[in-house]
Design a protein that fits this description.
Number of helices: 4
Distance between the termini: 43 Å
Structural class: alpha+beta
Oligomer: single chain
Order of helices and strands: HHHHEEE
Strand order of the largest sheet: 1-2-3
Length: 147
C-alpha cells in the first residue's frame, strides 16, 4: 500500500505530460530527482523530472517520497515512465473496445502512411455508432508498423 502512495505522484506527472503533449525525458534522466549535489541548477532534466521537482516544492508528501526513496526504488526512470504509458495505453484500448462492442454497427478504417523518419505504418481506426447517443464516432486505435 505504501508503494502505491509513492507511485501516485509519479503516475500523475507522466499522465500530465502526456495530456499536454510534452516529451518526458531530457539529457539527464537517471538518479535522484531531488539531488542537492547538482553542479548546475540551471540544467534542464526534462519535463517529467522538472515537473516532479516543481511539485515537490509545494507538496510535502511528494518531497518526502522523492527525498527518502531507496536508490533501487526511485520509480522515476525512463523504463518506469514507459511502463506507465504502456499500462495507460492498454486501459484506453480496453475502454475503446468496450465502446465498440456495445455499438450495433461498426466499420474498420485503415490507412497507410509514412512518418517523419520514413517508417511506413498503418493507421487503424474504427467508425461506430455510439449506443447511447446514436452519434457516429471515429475512434483512433493505434499505429501498426509495417515491415
Amino acid at each position: 500500500m505504501e508503494n502505491r502512495k509513492k507511485l501516485i505522484p509519479i503516475i500523475e506527472s507522466v499522465l500530465f505530460c502526456g495530456r499536454q503533449g510534452l516529451a518526458l525525458t531530457g539529457h539527464r534522466d537517471g538518479g535522484r530527482v531531488l539531488d542537492n549535489d547538482d553542479v548546475s541548477i540551471d540544467a534542464n532534466e526534462g519535463n517529467f523530472r522538472e515537473l516532479l521537482k516543481y511539485r515537490a516544492q509545494y507538496d510535502d508528501h511528494i518531497h518526502h517520497v522523492l527525498s527518502n526513496a531507496k536508490n533501487n526504488a526511485l520509480y522515476t526512470s525512463w523504463k518506469i515512465q514507459n511502463k506507465i504509458i504502456e499500462i495507460r495505453n492498454k486501459l484506453i484500448l480496453e475502454n475503446l473496445v468496450k465502446k465498440i462492442n456495445s455499438s450495433l454497427y461498426f466499420s474498420v478504417l485503415v490507412d497507410e502512411t509514412t512518418d517523419i523518419s520514413c517508417m511506413e505504418q498503418m493507421t487503424l481506426c474504427i467508425r461506430c455508432i455510439d449506443s447511447t447517443s446514436s452519434i457516429i464516432e471515429e475512434l483512433f486505435l493505434q499505429f501498426v508498423p509495417l515491415m
